[in-house]
Amino acid sequence: MTETPAFPNSPAPQRFPVVVVGAGPAGLTVGCVLRAAGVDCLVLETATREFVEGRPRAGVIEEPVVRGLERRGLAGNLLERARRHTACEFRFEGGRHPFAYHELTGRHHWVYPQQFLVTDLVREYADVRGGAVRFGVRDVRLHDLDGDRPSVSYVCPESGRREVAACAFVAGCDGARGVTRAAVAGRARVARHDYGIGWLALLAQAPPSADRVLFGCHPDGFAGQMPRSPEVTRYYLQCPPGDDPENWPHERVWAELRRRLDAAGAEPPAEGRLIEKRVLDMHDYVTEPMSFGRLHLAGDAAHLVAPIAAKGLNLALHDAFALGDALVARLVKGDGTGLAGYSEGCLRRVWDYQEFSQWLSELYHGGAAGDPFRAGTALARLRRLFSSPAAATAFAEQYLGTAVRY
Fold first, then answer.
1. Distances (CA, A) of 344 to 89, 112, 286, 340
2. Separation CA 400–CA 309 (nearest Å)
3. Rounded Cα distance, 230 and 107, in Å
4. Are β-strands 213-216 and 189-205 bridged in parallel, bridged antiparallel, or unpaired?
5. Judging by DSSP bridges, how do beta strands 213-216 and 88-92 pair with one another?
6. In terms of Cα–Cα distance, which of 21, 223, 27 is closest to 124?
7. Phi then psi for 245, rounded to 5 degrees?
8. Which InterPro entries is this protein grouped with (predicted)?
9. Where does residue 22 fall: left (phi above 0), alpha (psi -120 to 50 degrees), or beta otherwise?
10. What pLDDT, in 10s, does the model give residues 331-388?
11. pLDDT tens track for 56-84
12. Rg (CA), the chain
């Protein structure tokens, strides 16, 4: 973070109460909340609008998050188009084990691909609520975040000139590799956990073999099926960390999916063209605190949770609700209580979700660890889900994001 610089070749600074860095789910939600309250803001994004709206990512959304979007007028298309999931299925020891979490809790998941949600949020923020947004900007820099007059500068893609946006607050929503997280390097405490495994993430142009999420807990490695639409399915295959996707040709992918998801009476996965294939090294991190002067981090800029428990998008939106509401209270009502408690409140949920991700990872991967003790305890966890109503209910509440309310 630098002293206020001079920008001799730049036009006069623009002024916004809030500059949001990053046009992902968190940043766009913060922007929509601000605009609904009549607060001007500027959203800056290094990618193009077309790229942001087309980037496939998560798709499982918890019911409390959907209700949060609904309360803020952001769930119209989601409620109309998303699919409700009321059960998942574990496959182990050659058997199928349906887990009906709706029967235990009355809650369900929604499946709505993240790119659809981002498209909805971009349209709502920019086209409906009239929010200012700049796509394709370069070399974003943050200035004077500890002072009373912070600003954000960037290179305009059309003119090539550096432009400056003066503001009262900066919302850092630009992900794990963004400039806002880099700005607090050396000041933040970063806790990191590496699982020592990889997941081959696949997107297949093929219908799902079942109308629910499947978890294959196999001695040779985990496999998962996450339906995205009647025509597209997300699959995961456990692999060594750092593996090369080219080591997984079409034939090997489908052979492993059939083997690891095999169970008595189950339909095998339907083959289709693989439209995405990449390796994700499973790791988590948490940045503490999430607030630094006039900068407040949200989503992956503050924390990363491996996709093991499908919590990343949900955590980002919880952050965005809290940050957007807190900024509105401060700027409209002069009430700074929400901003003062923002970091602590969000981190309680973050750590709760991280703990569940670790627990679930052992359940998924312990049987393939090559350690008979870990394999035995992982199998004990699986069996307990189907023999103890108390254990099943506790798992369902954590899986659905309803175990703890903040």
1. 35, 29, 12, 9
2. 10
3. 23
4. unpaired
5. parallel
6. 27
7. -55, -25
8. FAD-bd, FAD/NAD-bd_sf, RIFMO-like
9. left
10. 999 999 999 999 999 999 999 999 999 999 999 999 999 999 999 999 999 999 999 9
11. 777 899 999 999 999 999 999 999 999 99
12. 22
